[in-house]
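Weekly sync, protein design subgroup
Attendees: M.S., D.O., the rotation student, P.L. (late)

Item 1: inverse folding check
M.S. brought a backbone from last month's batch and wanted to see whether the design step gives back something sensible before we order anything. D.O. pointed out we never logged the input encoding, so this time it goes straight into the notes. C-alpha cells as presented (156 positions):
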C-alpha cells in the first residue's frame, strides 16, 4: 500500500517509476546508517532518454527544467529501493545537479530548480535542501541533465 509520499505524488499526477538500472558498475542508491545517497539519475523514461543534447543549444532551458523533474522522480525511486518506504524520509539533505551546457549557457540553477521544486511539492518542508548546480561539457548518453540526491531517514 502506498504511503503519504506516494499519495502526494499521485495527487500531483505523478507515478513513481521503476528504478533505472545502472549503466555501469554502481548501485542506484546506497544506504549508510540513516542516510541514502543516490547515484546520478538521468531523465530516463521507460528505459530511454526522451531528449539528448546540450542545454542552451539543442535543449531549451524550460525543457531541461522538466527533465530535472524527471531526474528527481527517478532519484525518489532509487531512495525507495534503499529505504523501503518514502515515508521514512526525514529530510532531503543535498541535491547536486549537473547540466550539459552550451559554452555560453549560464542558467544551470534555473534548470536544477526543476528537481528542487519537485522535491518541495512532494515532500513539503522535508524537501528543503542544500544544493549545487554545475555546468559540464557532457553527461552519460548525451543526457542534458543529471541529478543526485542525499536524504536522511527517520531512525529505525
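Designed sequence read out in the meeting:
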Amino acid at each position: 500500500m502506498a504511503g503519504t509520499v506516494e499519495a502526494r505524488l499521485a495527487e500531483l499526477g505523478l507515478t513513481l517509476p521503476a528504478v533505472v538500472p545502472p549503466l555501469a558498475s554502481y548501485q542506484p542508491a546506497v544506504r549508510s546508517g540513516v542516510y541514502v545517497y543516490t547515484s546520478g539519475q538521468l531523465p530516463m523514461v521507460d528505459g530511454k532518454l526522451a531528449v539528448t543534447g546540450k542545454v542552451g543549444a539543442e535543449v531549451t532551458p524550460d525543457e531541461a527544467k522538466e527533465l530535472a523533474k524527471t531526474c528527481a522522480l527517478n532519484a525518489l525511486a532509487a531512495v525507495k529501493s534503499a529505504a523501503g518506504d518514502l515515508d521514512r524520509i526525514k529530510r532531503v539533505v543535498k541535491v547536486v545537479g549537473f547540466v550539459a551546457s552550451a559554452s555560453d549557457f549560464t542558467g544551470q540553477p534555473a534548470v536544477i530548480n526543476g528537481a528542487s521544486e519537485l522535491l518541495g511539492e512532494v515532500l513539503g518542508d522535508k524537501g528543503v535542501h542544500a544544493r549545487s548546480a554545475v555546468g559540464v561539457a557532457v553527461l552519460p548518453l548525451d543526457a542534458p541533465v543529471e541529478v543526485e540526491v542525499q536524504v536522511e531517514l527517520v531512525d529505525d
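Discussion: The chain is about 30% helix and 25% strand. Residues 63 and 122 are 20 Å apart (CA to CA).
Action: P.L. to compare against the previous round before Friday.
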